[in-house]
Task: inverse folding
C-alpha cells in the first residue's frame, strides 16, 4: 500500500517572471503526483507604521484587482486535468501570508520562484524569509523552469555520515508517488573535507524498497565545483534537509544547502526538520499538524 | 475535473487573520507616534517657522494654534469620507464622486502638486542638513557651505530623491521600532532646543532676549488679514498629515475601539510641542532681522540650520541629525503619496492607463513612482536655478495648494453627505457643519494668499517681471493642471463622461 505524500501543492504566485517559474514547477509536481494545485497570491498590506504623507487612502483594492488579472494569466497556463484553486489574500508580508495560507489549506509543499541558478542567489525577501520559517517543504524553482517538465528523478542530498536520513526516506516516498527514480547524492568539497568517505558508488538498494537507488558522489574543490560536476537530469528535483538550527517541523536553510542552491540548475526542495528525530514514520515530508477533526477525506490517517 | 474557477478574494476587512491596523492593537502611544511621525515636526518647523514668522511676526504662537482649527474641522469631514469610501485616491475619489470628474480631477491635481512641492522641499532641507551635519562632525566649516553651491546641491538632492523613490518602489517599510526611535529622538531634541533657548534667555546670553507676552497668543493682533491668511496657510502645512490618526481606525473595520483618545492625545502632543519650540525660538531670537532674528530673510527658509548652533552649542549636531532623519523618513513616506494618487487616477481612467501599472514583484505603483520622482527632481532643479529662496517659495506655494485641495475635499464631504447630515446632531456637525466651515475658511485663505502673492515683495521676495514668484508658481500649477485635464478629456473622454463610481460602504 503506497501512501501518497503530496496531496496539495501550493504555489506562491505574484505575477512576475519568477512566479511563472514557480507555477511551472507547481504544475509539474501536481501533475506527476496527481495532487491539487493551489495558487496563492498575497497582497501586502501596509503596516500602520508605514503611513504615506499626506494620507491618500488604501490602494489594496486596486492591487487586488490587478492581482486577479495576474491570477487569470496563471490559470490560463494550468493544463486541463489538474485540479486547482486560486486564493488572493492580504497579509502584512508575503512570507507571512504564504505561511498562514499553507497552514490553512493543509498544503504539503509550497513552491516559489527564486531566480536561483546560474550562480545567482535568491533576492526576494519573501523567499529568504520562507527558507528560514516555512512549516512545510519549500520547493524552489530555478529561473526559466519549463511547464512541460516531467519529474523523472528524485535526488536526495545525504551526507556520507548519515545515509539513513529523513531525506532518504522522504525521497523514497516522493519518488514512489511521482513515479520517479531515486538517486542519493553526497556532496563533498575537498577544501573543508566534509563528507569525505570511501563508500562505493554502486547501487545500494534498500531492503523493503522496490525502488532501485543510485548513489552518486558529487566531488569538487569547492561545493560549487561539486555541484557543477553532476550531470543533473532535466526532470530532477533535489531534496535536502534543514539545518539543525531549524525549529522542529520548520525549515531552515543550512550553509551547505545555501551553497548548493546557488548553483543548482534543477529545483531544490528544502524539507522541514523532522518532528521526531527517531520517528519511524516514512512520511517525513508531510508535516501537517495532526488534526483529529480533519474533514478532508483525502487526508492521511492521524499518526 | 477542474474545480470552480475564479480566485477567492478575501477583502481586508473580512479577513480575520490579517494583522489588524486598528488603533486598538497599536495603542494610544503608537497612534501618537504615527501621528507625530507623519507631520515630521523637526523638518516642518525648520522649514516653515521662518516663513511664518516673516508673515505674522511675534504672533507665531497665535497663528499656530488658530491654524489648527480649520485643519481639525476639515479632518472631521475627511474621517467621514474615509469611512464611506476608503478607496485610494481620497481627494480624487471623493471630489469626483461629490462634484463630478472635472472638480475631482482638479482637486487631485492640487494634491499632486502639493506632494511634488513637499518632495522637493524635503529633499532640499535634507541636503542643507546633510552638509551641515558633516561639517559639524568633521569640524570643517566649509563643508556646510557646499549646500550653497548650486551644482553640488542639485546633484545631492537628486540622489536623495532617487534613493527615496527606490525605497518606495521596493515597498520597504519603516519598522515600528525605527519609527519609535525616530519620533522620540525628534521630540527630545526639539524639547532640548526649547529648554536650551529658555535657559540662555534667563542667563542673559540669548541673541535677542524677548520677554514673553500673552499678546503673542492673540490672533487679532496680527497687522492685516493678508498676513493672517499667509500665516494660516503656512500653519496648515505645518499640521499637514496628523489627520492620519483620525482615519486610522477605519482600517480596522469591525473593531469597536474608538481612536478618539489617541487623536486628542496626538493633537495635544503636536500643538504643545510646536508652541513650546516656537516660544523658545521667539524668546531667544526675537523677530528682528538681526543675524539670528526670526525676521532675518537669510535664515528664514531653514531656521534650525542657523539657530541650533547658538542655542544648543556643540549639541547642535543633534538638531542636524534630528532634521536630517526626519526629512529623510518623510522623503520616503512622501514619495508614496503622489504615486498612489496617480495610481488611483490611472486606475479610474483619469490618467493614462500606464499610471495604473503595479510592479508584480513589489506590488507598488512602479510607473507612477518614476514619474513622480522625475517631476519633483526637475521642479527642484529649475527652482534652485531661478530662485535663491527655493525652499521658502516652495513652502509658501505648498501651503496654498494644501488649502486648495483640503478646501475642495471638505466641501465634497458636505455635498456628498448633504442628505444624511440631518439624521442626528453628531452627523450634522461631523458631516456638514465642521467640514463646511473648515472648507470655506481654507478656501478664503487660499484666495487671499493667491491675491497677495502677486505682490513682488510677498514671502521671500522672489519675483519675475514684477510679479511674485509664488503667484507665478501657483498659476503655473493650475494652468498646467487645466491643460493636462483638457488633454485627458481629449485623449480619454470616458472618465469625464461617466458617472464616477467607486466602492461604497454603509456609513453609520
Result:
Amino acid at each position: 500500500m503506497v501512501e501518497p505524500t503530496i496531496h496539495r501543492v501550493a504555489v506562491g504566485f505574484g505575477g512576475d517572471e519568477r512566479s511563472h517559474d514557480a507555477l511551472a514547477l507547481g504544475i509539474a509536481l501536481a501533475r506527476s503526483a496527481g495532487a491539487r494545485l493551489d495558487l496563492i497570491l498575497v497582497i501586502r498590506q501596509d503596516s500602520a507604521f508605514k503611513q504615506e504623507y499626506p494620507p491618500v487612502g488604501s490602494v489594496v483594492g486596486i492591487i487586488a484587482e490587478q492581482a486577479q488579472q495576474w491570477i487569470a494569466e496563471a490559470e490560463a497556463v494550468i493544463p486541463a486535468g489538474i485540479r486547482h484553486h486560486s486564493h488572493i489574500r492580504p497579509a502584512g508580508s508575503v512570507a507571512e501570508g504564504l505561511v498562514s495560507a499553507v497552514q490553512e489549506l493543509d498544503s504539503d509543499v509550497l513552491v516559489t520562484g527564486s531566480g536561483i541558478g546560474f550562480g545567482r542567489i535568491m533576492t526576494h525577501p519573501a523567499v529568504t524569509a520562507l527558507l528560514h520559517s516555512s512549516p512545510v517543504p519549500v520547493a524552489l524553482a530555478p529561473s526559466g523552469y519549463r511547464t512541460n517538465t516531467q519529474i523523472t528523478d528524485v535526488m536526495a542530498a545525504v551526507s556520507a555520515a548519515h545515509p539513513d536520513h529523513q531525506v532518504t526516506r522522504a525521497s523514497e516516498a516522493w519518488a514512489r508517488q511521482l513515479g520517479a527514480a531515486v538517486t542519493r547524492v553526497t556532496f563533498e568539497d575537498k577544501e573543508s573535507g566534509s563528507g569525505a568517505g570511501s563508500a562505493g558508488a554502486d547501487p545500494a538498494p534498500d531492503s523493503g524498497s522496490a525502488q532501485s537507488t543510485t548513489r552518486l558522489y558529487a566531488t569538487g574543490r569547492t561545493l560549487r565545483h561539486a555541484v557543477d560536476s553532476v550531470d543533473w537530469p532535466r526532470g530532477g528535483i533535489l531534496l535536502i534537509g534543514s539545518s539543525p538550527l531549524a525549529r522542529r517541523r520548520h525549515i531552515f536553510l543550512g550553509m551547505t544547502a545555501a551553497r548548493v542552491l546557488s548553483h543548482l540548475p534543477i529545483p531544490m526542495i528544502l524539507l522541514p526538520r523532522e518532528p521526531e528525530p527517531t520517528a519511524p514514520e516514512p512520511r517525513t515530508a508531510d508535516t501537517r499538524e495532526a488534526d483529529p477533526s480533519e474533514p478532508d477525506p483525502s487526508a492521511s490517517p492521524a499518526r | 475535473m477542474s474545480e470552480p474557477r475564479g480566485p477567492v478574494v478575501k477583502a481586508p476587512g473580512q479577513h480575520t487573520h490579517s494583522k489588524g491596523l486598528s488603533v486598538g492593537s497599536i495603542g494610544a502611544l503608537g497612534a501618537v507616534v504615527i501621528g507625530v511621525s507623519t507631520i515630521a515636526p523637526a523638518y516642518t518647523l525648520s522649514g516653515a517657522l521662518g516663513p511664518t514668522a516673516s508673515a505674522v511676526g511675534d504672533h507665531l504662537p497665535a497663528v499656530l494654534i488658530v491654524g489648527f482649527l480649520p485643519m481639525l474641522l476639515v479632518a472631521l469631514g475627511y474621517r467621514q469620507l474615509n469611512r464611506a469610501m476608503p478607496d485610494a485616491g481620497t481627494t480624487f475619489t471623493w471630489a469626483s464622486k461629490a462634484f463630478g470628474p472635472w472638480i475631482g480631477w482638479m482637486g487631485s491635481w492640487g494634491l499632486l502638486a502639493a506632494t511634488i512641492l513637499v518632495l522637493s522641499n524635503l529633499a532640499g532641507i535634507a541636503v542643507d542638513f546633510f552638509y551641515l551635519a558633516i561639517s559639524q562632525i568633521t569640524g570643517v566649516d566649509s563643508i556646510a557651505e557646499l549646500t550653497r553651491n548650486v551644482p553640488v546641491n542639485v546633484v545631492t538632492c537628486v540622489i536623495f530623491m532617487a534613493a527615496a523613490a527606490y525605497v518606495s518602489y521596493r515597498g520597504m517599510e519603516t519598522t515600528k521600532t525605527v519609527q519609535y526611535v525616530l519620533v522620540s529622538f525628534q521630540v527630545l531634541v526639539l524639547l532640548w532646543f526649547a529648554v536650551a533657548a529658555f535657559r540662555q534667555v534667563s542667563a542673559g546670553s540669548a541673541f535677542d532676549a524677548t520677554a514673553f507676552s500673552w499678546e503673542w497668543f492673540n490672533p487679532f493682533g496680527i497687522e492685516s488679514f493678508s498676513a493672517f491668511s499667509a500665516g494660516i496657510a503656512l500653519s496648515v502645512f505645518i499640521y499637514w498629515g496628523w489627520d492620519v490618526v483620525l482615519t486610522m481606525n477605519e482600517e480596522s473595520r469591525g473593531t469597536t475601539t474608538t481612536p478618539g483618545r489617541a487623536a486628542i492625545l496626538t493633537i495635544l502632543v503636536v500643538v504643545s510641542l510646536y508652541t513650546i519650540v516656537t516660544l523658545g525660538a521667539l524668546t531667544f531670537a526675537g523677530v528682528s532681522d538681526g543675524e539670528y532674528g526670526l525676521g532675518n530673510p537669510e535664515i528664514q527658509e531653514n531656521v534650525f540650520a542657523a539657530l541650533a548652533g547658538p542655542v544648543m552649542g556643540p549639541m547642535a549636531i543633534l538638531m542636524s541629525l534630528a532634521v536630517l532623519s526626519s526629512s529623510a523618513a518623510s522623503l520616503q513616506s512622501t514619495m508614496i503619496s503622489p504615486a498612489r494618487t496617480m495610481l488611483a487616477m490611472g486606475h479610474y481612467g483619469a490618467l493614462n492607463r500606464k499610471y495604473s501599472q503595479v510592479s508584480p514583484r513589489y506590488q507598488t505603483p512602479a510607473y507612477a513612482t518614476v514619474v513622480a520622482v522625475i517631476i519633483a527632481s526637475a521642479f527642484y532643479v529649475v527652482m534652485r536655478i531661478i530662485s535663491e529662496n527655493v525652499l521658502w517659495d516652495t513652502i509658501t506655494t505648498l501651503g496654498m495648494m494644501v488649502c486648495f485641495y483640503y478646501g475642495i475635499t471638505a466641501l465634497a464631504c458636505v455635498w456628498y453627505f448633504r442628505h444624511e447630515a440631518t439624521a442626528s446632531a453628531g452627523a450634522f456637525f461631523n458631516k456638514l457643519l465642521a467640514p463646511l466651515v473648515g472648507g470655506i475658511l481654507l478656501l478664503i485663505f487660499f484666495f487671499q494668499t493667491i491675491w497677495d502673492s502677486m505682490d513682488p515683495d510677498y514671502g521671500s521676495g522672489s519675483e519675475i517681471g514684477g510679479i511674485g514668484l509664488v503667484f507665478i508658481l501657483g498659476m503655473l500649477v493650475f494652468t498646467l493642471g487645466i491643460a493636462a485635464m483638457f488633454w485627458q478629456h481629449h485623449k480619454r473622454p470616458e472618465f469625464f463622461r461617466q458617472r464616477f463610481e467607486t466602492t461604497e460602504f454603509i456609513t453609520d
